[in-house]
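Hi, here's the filled form for the chain we discussed.

Project: internal
Contact: R.S.
Residues: 163
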Amino acid sequence: MARKSSLILLLRGINLGPHKRVPMPELRSLLTNAGFSEVRTYVASGNVVLSSDAKSASIVRTGDELAEVVARNPLADVAVNPKRYQVSFLEREPDPSVLERIAASRAEPERLVAIGRELYAWHPDGIGRSKLWAKLGGNGLGVRATARNWTTVTTLLEMADAS
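And the returned structure, exactly as it came back:
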């Protein structure tokens, strides 16, 4: 029998504005009824930690993979506000030429570091007017992605570790 492990689901585009509203109790119930266990949600924006013996796929990370994301923390020396430090989780590695084009849109003192299927972005002035964020948050990556701020990333890891 396969060992159950923590999986972190990073659902994209739910509960953003008045459309695609998904109540978290309903989401937890659906996932439990689908055979997952220890289903927990964090805030109402599509963050789920659960246990499963299924392999991870798409924009899902195992607890170990998320621990690696946090351990890398390539912008720790500059990213002092966790609400303005974003990690974009990608379904696969993006094309290097696309990354170069996106990185060129950043304005100092913003930073962008790509490692595998994650993009770490520091937006010290916020994401509201950031041209870098506009590229990362749109369809310009050529790969499905969803982003979480550093507070959410580390909280999800704590939740996974508590499983």
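Let me know if anything looks off before we file it.
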